[in-house]
Each structure stands twice: as C-alpha cells, then as structure tokens.
Design brief:
- This protein is α+β, with helices and mostly antiparallel strands and 341 residues long.
- The protein folds into two domains: 2-193, D-amino Acid Aminotransferase, Chain A, domain 1 (2-Layer Sandwich), CATH 3.30.470; 198-321, Nucleic acid-binding proteins (OB fold (Dihydrolipoamide Acetyltransferase, E2P)).
- The protein is 26% helix and 28% strand.
- Strands 9, 10, 11, 12, 13, 14 and 15 form a seven-stranded antiparallel β-sheet that branches. Strands 2-1-3-4 form a four-stranded antiparallel β-sheet. Strands 5-8 form a two-stranded antiparallel sheet.
- The longest helix has 15 residues, at 141-155.
- It is globular and about 70 Å long.
- It starts with a strand and ends with a helix.
C-alpha cells in the first residue's frame, strides 16, 4: 500500500494480516518502478494498492551472481520479493531485481477524482506514473471470462513473472458497492486458479510430525524436485487414511504438486514404477518425540500423541501458537528461540 499526499510518497506498508502491516517506506523508495512524485494533477491524498514482484529474468541473474560470489541463493521469486521488502538495510533491497504493478486504489481525496470503473482507474494510474500489468483486459459474460482465462493460461509459461491464476472483478464501482463484502472477501471479485503444476519424484521416507494438539501427521520425505519454481523435499500426506487410499510406500515414484501453488502434497503413486518388496506403511504405535502412545479416536481420521504437554513437540508448537501474529503477536519469539528454550 503506497500513500501519497499532494503527489509525494509519504508511506509504504505491507498487507500484513489484512489489518496491520509493516512500514517498509525506506525500502520501497529504492524501487525504480515506484514513483516518488506523481505525474500530472495528483489528488490531495491517494492510496495505491499493488504488488512487488521479482521477474524471472532478474531472479535468475541475481542467483547466478550470488552463486559466483559464494553467497546464499534466493529460494524462488515469490519468497525473494517478500524477503527483499523486509530487509533492515534499504541498500540490500536496492540491489534486488524488484518490480511493481499497481492494481487498485484504497483512499482518494477528493473522492470525486475516482473514475467510475476499475479499468478506467488502472488507465488513470498509468498516467500518474504507475506500472500496470499489460495483460489486464475487460470481458463480457461467462464466455468472455473463460476466453480470457484460457488466453492467459496459454501464455503463462512465457510471461516474465510467475502467476497462479486470474482475478475477475466487476468493472463498475456502483456494481461493486451494490454487491458488497462477506467479512473481508468482496462479492464482486473472484480468483480463477490455474491447475497446479505436477512433477514426478521418489518417496524416500515417511516421518511423523506431532502438532500443537498432539495430532500425528505423516510427512513424505522426497528426492528434491522443482515444482512451480520451488525445490520440494517434503510433502504432506495428511493422515493414515490418505496413505491407505493412495497406497503410498517408501521407495515409490510419486506425483507431487503444490496445492494452491503453496503447500506440497502427494497426489498419486506411479504404480508401474513401484520397486519389488515394498511394504504398506503403518502408523507407528508410539510418538516419535516423547514415546507416549499414539491413539486414534473412534470415527476420527487423526491419530494423536497421548503425552500432552510432557511431549516436547506439543510444548514447542503450543508456544509458537501463543506467540504467533494471530495470538499474542510476540515479535522476535520464533522457532529458533523456542527450540533453545
């Protein structure tokens, strides 16, 4: 979110949890794509919403330089962009290959300057000096939306930045106001995701992780594989019932995808590649952390550690939850410090 007063950039903040974000003004000032002074007749107050991204070419070039210098590589463009904005030193941000696209407006004073439609607003933002994604378009009816979705999907792999879908919005603001919101979600906008990218790899082991409530979750340990620009080595198997449905075994070749382009999961087994003498996997009888018995409630899919807070894993996860942003929001109390405790 970029706030301009009388045409000058005065503040930039991250989205955060939707209510509270971080002030990253100093870092945003280093981005060439973000105007420090607006062109033309600017409103008294203008809040512009947009997204900072790291184009693929910039990401590849940055990692090539980092590799040559023996420095740490960025995991993927998405994480690279987010991490770059949160740097304590703006000079570090300035060296990152970041770009920016504006996609909307928050506050505008006087309100009479706001164009009547979303598409006209994006055109107006261009005249003020903001980059806007060149792929934006208007469409009419279901057929028009699906045609746009398919056109962007066909071009997806050739775009200079990664995307996971398209967003449809009602164009006229009076129509948006008529539909309103459900909680924070607008009724006048909807995301249409592309199918998740899938890749093949080998399942090397199945471990059990213990969560805050004692739930025992099987996790697949995989031979490293690139999925949607991220190196995946672990994937959720959800629960023992899911493993039984998929008939996943250690040594199997499996298909992996990132659900929502975020969470890695095992989709299915490539049965014809199964090596001989594999055995069906069974949930262990005792917690791998504290040794307490694992129990399954009647009719439930989850197994749970019976150790309660005597289990180190449950204590750690409980403290992490207590300190998290949606709970007590204790800044600086992260996983590493809790492990030390």
């Amino acid at each position: 979110s970029l706030r301009y007063e009388h045409g000058l950039l005065v503040q930039g903040a991250t989205r955060g949890d939707g209510s509270v974000g971080e002030d990253v003004t100093a870092n945003l000032r280093t981005l060439r794509a973000i105007p420090l002074r607006l062109r033309g007749d600017a409103p008294d107050v203008l809040e512009v919403r947009g997204e900072v991204i790291m184009p693929r070419a910039g990401f590849d070039a940055f990692n090539a330089r980092a590799l040559a210098a023996g420095e740490k590589l960025l995991a993927n463009p998405r994480n690279g962009a987010a991490g770059s904005l949160r740097q304590l030193d703006p000079r570090v941000t300035a060296r990152r290959p970041l770009a920016f696209f504006a996609y909307g407006i928050g506050v505008i004073e006087p309100a009479s300057l706001l164009p009547p439609t979303h598409s006209a607003t994006l055109q107006w933002l261009r005249t003020l000096g903001f980059p806007v994604a060149p792929e934006i378009a208007t469409a009419q009816g279901f057929a028009g939306l699906i045609a746009y979705y398919r056109r962007i999907g066909a071009a997806r792999d050739h775009l200079p930045y990664g995307i996971d879908g398209v967003v449809y919005k009602l164009d006229r603001y009076v129509d948006q106001q008529a539909l309103g919101y459900v909680a924070r979600a607008p009724r006048w906008a909807i995301a249409h995701k592309f199918p998740a990218e899938e890749q093949m790899t080998v399942l090397e082991a199945i471990d059990v992780q213990i969560g805050r409530t004692g739930a025992a979750t099987p996790v697949a340990r995989l031979a490293p594989v690139q999925v949607a620009g991220v190196t995946v080595t672990n994937a959720t198997l959800h629960n023992a019932d899911q493993i039984e449905r998929l008939d996943v075994r250690v040594g199997d070749t499996v298909i992996v995808r990132r659900a929502g382009d975020v969470i890695p999961e095992v989709v299915r087994v490539v049965a014809e590649r199964r090596p001989p003498h594999t055995r069906p996997w069974r949930m262990p009888t005792h917690c791998p952390v504290c040794g307490a018995q694992l129990l399954r409630e009647k009719g439930a899919s989850a197994w749970r550690c019976s150790g309660g807070l005597s289990c180190a894993a449950q204590r750690r996860e409980a403290i992490l939850h207590f300190a998290s942003r949606r709970a007590m929001d204790i800044d600086g109390l992260g996983e590493r410090y809790i492990e030390d405790l």
